[in-house]
Each structure stands twice: as structure tokens, then as C-alpha cells.
Amino acid sequence: MSVGRVGKQHKPLPNVVVIGGGTGLSVILRGLKQAPVHITAIVTVADDGGSSGRLREEMDMLPPGDIRNVLTALANTEPLMEKVMQYRFTNGTGLAGHNLGNLLLAAMNEITGDFVTAIKKLSDVLAVRGVVLPATKQSVSLKAEMADGTVISGESKIPLAGKQIKRVLIEPADVVPLTEAIQAIQQADVILIGPGSLYTSILPNLLVRGLFAEIKRAAAPKFYICNVMTQPGETDGFTAANHVEVLYQHVGGPFLDTVLVNSAEIPSHIREKYAEKGAFPVECDMERLAQLGLNIVAKPFMTFEGGYLRHDAGAVSREIVSVMRRSRKKE
């Protein structure tokens, strides 16, 4: 495991470990790869929908979708290559619905006989800046116990149930974390969790017991990047503190140091657009976050791109780098 690339002063770059999955993680990584840091992304492997789900079932491999998104976000290649990686076929018997990047990972997995090696080889091809790792090499299924006592099986089905989630769990519960992921956490100068779907992208990583034990043990400061909007079927009505409380409930207690929350006002026409789909701004309940013992960084961390609200990756990255510099000066 690389400790960090050497800069002009022959000092190792600070190691940033980012944990999560989905679109939110990819957005943050696009900003971080421009910063003077060494990145390790630890990615969930609980996805069971779409192209990933089909490949997982038909080829007995880990789902490649979240990994593909992260590789693409960290790649230093021409824009056309990103379009190739993200291209989804619309025609063809057995091919329609598949994503080309997923198929490349599946092919590399077949060639090398190992999913982690497949990621490393494709990382070389894409000139990926950093290291991308699955949380575990074992096949993981996600289940949710709902407030009414029903149990929903499958990551892709949980948000569609239209019920309040009581808790999620992974099966098998005793999966072993990837050794390289453990080493990355041990060497981290800062650990970032999120943004992303709380129950289906973030918690599947933290529920890998050995992985979370290492996160909790790590001396590195731990940041939670809270979502800008609630997610229908997962976090309806949630405040920022509710997100943190759910994390703590699942892992048995506090472990975070700092929470990053968006303070920018969302224009009414954008709010209305999201409200039509059942999504609303996440309230930054400062008092409750303070009661949880967290350092609170509330700044305009939001941008609007391509018709969607996103985290401002540049603003988040600058904040993280600033915190690391202040921390190093104290040492």
C-alpha cells in the first residue's frame, strides 16, 4: 500500500481515506483529485440492481457499478474515455442495460481471476489518481428491517419499499474486510465518510465489523459529509443530526469528530423541483449536532449542475485540506 506520493519537498502527501458509494462519493473525489493529497477510496459492494446486479448474479463477481463510478471520477484521461466508461447500451440481446465500464471490470476480473487485481489493472489503464478498494472481497447482501417489522432484502429494493427504515444489516454479518483497506485506514491522516445514501451506500461499509473497528481505532480525524437533500425512501424528514444518530445507532456509539453541512440557501425553483420527487433540504440543526459533541463546519458546500444539486467538490476539498494543514502545524 502506497503511503503517499512524494512532492517537491520530498514530503509524503497526506493520506485521505474516503468511504462510501454512489454518486455522492464520486462527486467529492473529482474535487479531491485536484488537491495535494493521496486518495484511497473504500467502496461499498452491496449493490444488487441494474447492470451490476446482473453481472453479480450471472458471473458470480462483486458488483462493479460503484467501483466503476469511483474509477471514472479519479481517472486522469480524456473526456471521451469517461463517456466510454459510463456508456450504457440500449440495444442488443443480453447487452441492453449493461454499462461498458461494468463489462470492462467483469472482463478484467475474468482475465486476472481476482476482483481487486482487476480494479488495479483498470486503474493503470485509466491513470487513476489514488487507490480504489472494495470494503470486502466477499459477496454481501443488504437487508432492512422496517419500522412495521417487515424485512426488505436487496439494496436496490429498500428505498422503493416506501416505509420507514428501522435498521439495515449485511449478510453474512462476519465478512472480512480487505487487508489493503485496513492498512489504508491505519495510515490515514483524515477519514471522510459520505456523502451518499445513508442506509444503502454508507452503512454497508461501516457494518463490515473489522473495517469499522479500524476506523474507530484510527487516530485520524473523522469527518461526515452530510447530504444536501433528503432521499425518498431512506431519509424522509431527516435533519443533519438524524443522519449522524443513525450512524451511531448502527455501530454502537459515537466515532465522528466533525460534520460538514451545507449552509447555502437553495433557490425556491430548485426546491420545488426536488419536492415533486419527495426530496427536501436537510436542515442543519446546529444545537443537536453540538449536543452530539461534533465540530460543525457549516458553509456553502452546494452547487447546481446539469439540473441536479451536488456538493461543491472544490469547496469541500479546500475545507478538508485546510483542516489537515492546521492539524499538521499542531503536531
UniProtKB/TrEMBL annotation:
GO terms for biological process: regulation of cell shape. Keywords: Cytoplasm. It is found in: Cytoplasm. Its main location: cytoplasm. GO terms for molecular function: LPPG:FO 2-phospho-L-lactate transferase activity. GO terms for cellular component: cytoplasm. Belongs to the gluconeogenesis factor family. HAMAP family: Gluconeogen_factor. Required for morphogenesis under gluconeogenic growth conditions. This is Gluconeogenesis factor. The lineage of its organism: Bacteria, Bacillati, Bacillota, Bacilli, Bacillales.
